[in-house]
Amino acid sequence: MSKKPADLDHAFTRRAAIAGAAGGLVWAGLIGRLFQLQILDQERYQAQAEANHIKLQLAPPQRGRILDRFGRPLASHRRAGRISIIPEQADNPEETLARIASLIEVPDQRLERIANEVRMSRRRNAGFVPVTVAHELTYEDFARMNVHAAEMPGVNVEMALTRSYPRGRDFAHVLGYVARASQDDLVRLTDDMSDKEAETLKTMFRHPDMRTGRQGMERFAEEWLRGKPGYRKLVTNAHGRVIEEIPDERLAPTPGRDLFVTIDSDLQRVAIERFEGESGAAVVLDVESGDVLAMVSTPAFDPNDFVNGISSADYAELRDNNRSPLYPRAHGGVYPPGSTFKMVVATAALEAGVIKPTDRVHCNSYYHFGNRTWHCWKRGGHGSVNLHTAIKGSCDVYFYEIARRTGVDKIAEVARKFGFGEDWVLGMTGGRGGLVPDREWKQRVRKENWYEGETLNFGIGQGQLGTTPLQLALMTARIASEGKPFTPRMIGIGPNSADDHSLDAPLDAEIMKLMKAGMYGVTSEGGGTAYRSGDLGLGGPRLAGKTGTAQVRRITREERLSGVRSGSEIARELRDHALFVAYAPADNPKYAISVVVEHGEGGSRTAAPVARDILHFALKTDSRRKPTYSQSASLPASMKDEGEPT
Amino acid sequence: MNREGFTGFSRGEARTRTATSLSFENQGVLEKLMRLPWGFILLIAAMALTGIAMLYSSAHTNPIEAHLWKLQLVRLVICFVMMIGLAMLPLSWWMRLAFPAYAGTLVLLVLVELMGVTGGGAQRWLQVGPVAVQPSEFAKLAVTLALARYYQMILQPQTGRILVHLGALAIILLPAALIFKQPDFGTTLALVASGGVVIFLAGLSVRIITAVIVGGVASVWPVYQFVLAPYQRERVDTFLAQLFGESTNALGESYQIEQGKIAIGAGGFNGRGFLQGIQSQQDYVPEQHTDFILTVIAEEFGFLGSTALLVGFAVLLGWSLYSAARSVSWFGRLASAGAVATVAFYIVFNVGMVLGLLPVVGMPLPLISYGGTAMLTTMACFGLIIAAHMHRDEKLTARGIF
């Protein structure tokens, strides 16, 4: 069936019209759909678009600072460039890491560790938590990464606040350090929390800026310093890259509180320098207020090294260093106090009434007891000594005698009144109580009876007795203040320590005056063991003190007979520790100090000059030692006028 | 009497001018240029430049894609000049080129099969020196030309039998099969659909059309079950799920549709303003500079902007179809109408997909989306439409294959 051309022409026109009409219908349908989406459902989609790009991100609080008594920062913050990667937002984490490594220097070993961490976080479905790739960027690296980060989805380059210890090693053992929270930390921190609180805390600690106190005051005052997390309102793109931040006061994190310590960081510095590289410890106390003004343990580590995680090699070096920089000597180092303990023995004897101050004992350098012989340090002996001259000359024979008469339990009881045998936390960690032995202890721990001979060793501060430099300073402060109640403290404004308390067991002021007279004799009278160190060089005030030597090993009879005791002839680590305790000014004590110079051999030769120079500085700068925090703190008005915190 | 406008000539006038129009080929190039339908051409240019602006908006924040608009502008200028050149080509030349172009496209499609570059899960691209071309795009124009040429050859002696249309079907199905095998479901469908429109316009009997529609509906399920690859089936499933309002996995297959719809809906009536779309500016919609560019227009210029775009397309295609109907020769009519259908199906598939009315088939929006091959095909289609318009009074005689 064939058609004429004109019919076909008409047929084409008709069919074109039909096709056009069909097209028109389809177009109408499309526009109808646009109307539905853009006009009818507009609100729903606009809300979805908003929700799409505004995200709430957990914001870590800024940790409180730790300041010294004058408000100078000991632990604060420093801005540093940091690169982190959010695994779930990176298209190909391995490739991205390689790209970063091509732009800035990242050690291969570290790169491998990060790649591993990224893989792990994906497996644990924690791919939204940023993993730190590099921190402490140089300015050049930071700028270069900033330029290229836009091409790498999931990579964030930002300025972060990093914990910083501007005084470095000076406060390592007091402040401790912060670190990323480990699993152990989290278990410890969430111990007494509800599940919900614990979950929030754990989430917060996953943030790369969050640190927790691992040691020292950072750990002790964790809750005070930490603050509360908040949220940041962020505008992000589809890859999670932050476009801008919408400020919102209500969501902001609550920063941690600042903490004031009683320490004077200048005094601390002077004290550390005075050790001239020797290992040792020094504690300076304010006799009136109980403030710890210096707490020195040297050598020390740099806590800044720990903030971003210390490498295992660096840590091993610190751990295996034969000078033990990780060891907190001032409050965790236990030493036999040696002759510095003689004031305690004398006090016990006077309290017990077994001697009078004027009673004389003859010293010919030997003391026989049972079938053994004890020696006095002074060859040839002191001759006839009473209490005063025995302390001044540190006569061992005198103290063997009075210790034996007093008995171990009485000496131990008095030692505890001075603060021995107790771990004074004062906001630190790693402290030790040492040991004040007595009959009960020996029976309980050693399952043996106490031997009378041990009491003799006890009498000159040797044997089982173990004390810390902090305890020795406390003892000195108690003597200097003539037995008044004494409350040591190192936290000026901050969390109270539940363990610490006032040292207020009664001590007879008259007996303390005798002790002070003896200590004055040591430094300022002929025959005193530290006669040369008595002058503070300030044209008037003198210091009063007591030397001590802590035996590191037993002296053999052969050595004693042959006279080989000179330090240069024996290895350093076998030499005795030198001790010195003192207060100044002698007539109106303000400062008490204890100094231990490890392997320094003689208290008078090495420890006393250190103590004298520290006290010299302390007294020279005395007029400005008033803490600044007491003025700003919320003390009652009447107390503000007096200035000194109580 | 407006010679250059959309109206063209009325039927009577055309008849009276037949004698002169035969001598068009001898006229000067300048005069021919003057006679081009400049209103139509300027509308094309305006819409293409809108596309460049939207491309800039969608990609300027992304450092990798920020420069693409410049590249696209260069392509646009080249393709635009080419379109004008093609528009001035006599229809007899187009006719001579029809079968060789079709044969060439088939060769290219076979080459793709043998040594094509795989991209996006399908083997579609052919690397020619520095550029990758997609022969399946050229196939759309080649099939249109071949069909028009075929009907010009057959209808001239006026044989309207069914057998005639079977030949046309073969012309469509041969390249369609090769493209389907790549696999490229969207292009296959567009090719078959626009080819079908040409057959319909060529006068296929209503009974057969009815039978095809019934058969088509009946074959939907078997095709879904046995012909489609799993990933294609998944797309259809996703599409159906969202069409019926089922909540689909926001990060799964429908993420693109979901985010696209949010962008469109968030635009509201007025839109958020140029460069102000929060979805568009922050990369939420994948492939936003290519297939999903409509979401940028919709978000930044709102319902007004997206409707204006569709109306612009409607004006272009309506005038083209009208112009096709004015053509004296069967080749002119069918080639022009086939080109209209090709562009129209591009638009319908793309917009339908972006609006969540059709499954995701991966089809660019003509004149707007980023991409060279699609731009080339679209501009060639418009060139052909204008050429048919310019030579609408020309009677053509087909002799042999060339």
Automatic annotation (TrEMBL), chain A:
In its UniProt record, which GO terms are filed under biological process? Answer: cell wall organization; peptidoglycan biosynthetic process; proteolysis; regulation of cell shape
| Pfam families noted in UniProt | PBP_dimer, Transpeptidase
Instruction: Tell me how this protein sits in the membrane.
Output: Single-pass membrane protein
- SUPFAM superfamilies, sorted: beta-lactamase/transpeptidase-like, Penicillin binding protein dimerisation domain
- Give start and end of each Penicillin-binding protein transpeptidase domain: 280-615
One Gene Ontology CC term in the entry = plasma membrane
Q: Where is the Penicillin-binding protein dimerisation domain?
A: 60-246
Which keywords has UniProt assigned to this entry? Carboxypeptidase, Cell inner membrane, Cell membrane, Cell shape, Cell wall biogenesis/degradation, Hydrolase, Membrane, Peptidoglycan synthesis, Protease, Transmembrane, Transmembrane helix
Question: Membrane-spanning regions, if any?
Answer: 12-35
Q: Where is this region: Disordered?
A: 623-646
Taxonomic superkingdom: Bacteria
One example GO MF annotation: serine-type D-Ala-D-Ala carboxypeptidase activity
Kindly list the places in or outside the cell where this protein is found, as annotated in its UniProt entry: Cell membrane; Membrane
NCBIfam families the UniProt entry points to? pbp2_mrdA
Q: What is this protein called?
A: Penicillin-binding protein 2
Its ancestry begins with: Bacteria, Pseudomonadati, Pseudomonadota, Alphaproteobacteria, Hyphomonadales
Name of encoding gene: mrdA
UniProtKB/TrEMBL annotation, chain B:
Task: Please name the source species.
Answer: Hyphomonas atlantica
Gene Ontology terms: cellular component: cell division site; plasma membrane
Q: Which GO terms describe its molecular function?
A: glycosyltransferase activity; lipid-linked peptidoglycan transporter activity
Domain of life, per UniProt, equals Bacteria
Q: How does it sit in the membrane?
A: Multi-pass membrane protein
Query: Under what name is this protein listed?
Result: Cell wall polymerase
Q: Name one GO biological process term.
A: peptidoglycan biosynthetic process
- What subcellular compartments does it reside in? Membrane
Transmembrane ranges, per UniProt, are 36-56, 68-91, 97-117, 162-180, 186-204, 211-231, 301-322, 334-361, 367-389
UniProt entry keywords in alphabetical sequence = Cell membrane, Cell shape, Cell wall biogenesis/degradation, Glycosyltransferase, Membrane, Peptidoglycan synthesis, Transferase, Transmembrane, Transmembrane helix
Looking up Pfam families in the UniProt record yields: FTSW_RODA_SPOVE
